[in-house]
């Protein structure tokens, strides 16, 4: 077989990809007809494709490259670790220095008494750990009936059987017989789409109180935990009304259930502080982490649990673990990533300088005729596309059409911005510069113009 490299013509790479590579969340034959985009290099916040086109990556990959692309220190940390100890497991009474050092560092960074880490290789795996862990925790405490985990519609917690069941994506549940038993979904705090005539504050309280109602209906003795993203990411960067989280915290405190904050996106600086729980003043018993932990340079995730949860779990043998739990190379890379994020003041600067600058610019997009609202927290933001701002109306076209048109226009204009239905979302690397923020806004505006024209011309408004 001829060697396949970056230097091959794009068409040949596309044909091979179409012939052999099954893509996540992709309609395969549609993509094969169109031709996949081949990304070949990246540096800072910029991606380059096989045709030499450059894109400002306003999504940091999949919400993960917090540090930006191309940091040689991480490659060196990986190479050093591979030479010294490329692999060993943490089962059967052994450990290694990278896992010790990373768990200790995570314990320092996470708030409160979240001092103990169970490693995984992804957010999905970590949430599967959480499902088994909370049920085992309650069994250990002599309350085996506490099994149900309450989650929210339109939440995203991963793609495995367990984590996709926790998630509230109906299109995912429709495939593969989900959700698995003992997962219950309440409504999401998405005021723009579902708030009707209520004020955001009233709506936030109403949605939070659904948790208390669900605990009441299901029976507190049957509920193990509530899981939520501090800010929903894949659901469309839904920043809840200010009344929501304090009420959720009150309800979790008042009832005997564990609170799991899924920080896979919000963690490691995304919301302007180290964790979304700090930005939104949440006190979880368990945190799910992944993505920004290694800035995506290595696959790694984990569940960080409180002193009390660890104390109870330490009284049994938890029959759970992955071959790559605490993989030494992934741990070494994550440690180096955390060192740089901290020592170079990247999280600090993202919160105090870049976020306010981006917020000011991002909110100017509401002047565009197609934009109904612009929301942003730290470096994760969204805009809602609408044909009629005042009524927050939906388009005549099928939901998601306008978003898709806008996303294509972004790509055509050197910007990676994702769409979730008819919301456009951003989550740029934390190292994005102010000049790049200006470019992001200019390109987003141009893409909105292109989308507006197409939607009008094609009668889709
Ligand atoms: N939780 C959240 C909040 C996520 O956004 C994601 C991924 N987008 C996951 C879990 C799953 O993580 P992974 O894709 O690493 O399995």
Automatic annotation (TrEMBL):
Keywords: Aminotransferase, Pyridoxal phosphate, Transferase. One of its GO terms (molecular function) is pyridoxal phosphate binding. SUPFAM superfamilies: PLP-dependent transferases. PROSITE patterns: AA_TRANSFER_CLASS_3. Its cofactor is pyridoxal 5'-phosphate. InterPro entries: Aminotrans_3, Aminotrans_3_PPA_site, PyrdxlP-dep_Trfase, PyrdxlP-dep_Trfase_major, PyrdxlP-dep_Trfase_small. Gene3D superfamilies: Aspartate Aminotransferase, domain 1, Type I PLP-dependent aspartate aminotransferase-like (Major domain). PANTHER family: AMINOTRANSFERASE (PTHR43094), AMINOTRANSFERASE CLASS-III (PTHR43094:SF1). NCBIfam families: PRK07480.1 (NF005682). This is Aspartate aminotransferase family protein. It comes from Roseovarius faecimaris.
